[in-house]
Amino acid sequence: MKTEENITFCPLFTPQAGQEAFRSITRSYYRGAAGALLVYDITRRETFNHLTQWLEDARQHSNSNMVIMLIGNKSDLESRREVKREEGEAFAREHGLVFMETSAKTAANVEEAFINTAREIYEKIQEGVFDVHNEANGIKIGPQHSPSGAGLAGNQGAAGGQGGGCC
């Protein structure tokens, strides 16, 4: 998909036990990110239990307007589920996050998670919450930018022999 703005996403993954050193590395990714995916494993309750700490960390080290999508991953393993969908939805509601469940194995909702996050960011751009001229917001205007505001509409400008980049 081609967009007019290059949006920086910060994928956040809750580490397994013993990987707390990972936390200090992720902090550098928060700065300058317009969006983040906070992911937990629906088959491992402990990953869900650590969400509050990871969310606190993300909010402390990021732009206060950053869009955060809460992802319950491994929806393909329903028989091993330890975290109910309703629990994820309630956590997201309580903390003002966007929520969905995905399966990285089957690719179910994976693309949609990124598209929905990008859409939320784009809406904030349209509302003036993010200033596209300030790269500190995690948004960088790409070379294909046009003042039409077409945004996430797709591959405009590439058809009809009008030069333009790929992707």
Automatic annotation (TrEMBL):
Top-rank taxon: Eukaryota
Matches recorded under Gene3D superfamilies: P-loop containing nucleotide triphosphate hydrolases
Residue stretches of biased makeup (Gly residues): 151-167
InterPro entries referenced in this protein's UniProt entry, alphabetically: P-loop_NTPase, Rab_GTPases_membrane_traffic, Small_GTP-bd, Small_GTPase
Start and end residues of each stretch annotated as Disordered: 147-167
Gene Ontology molecular-function annotations: GTP binding; GTPase activity
Family indicated by similarity: Belongs to the small GTPase superfamily. Rab family.
Matches recorded under NCBIfam families: small_GTP
Name under which the protein is recorded: Ras-related protein Rab-2A
Source species of the chain: Penaeus vannamei (Whiteleg shrimp)
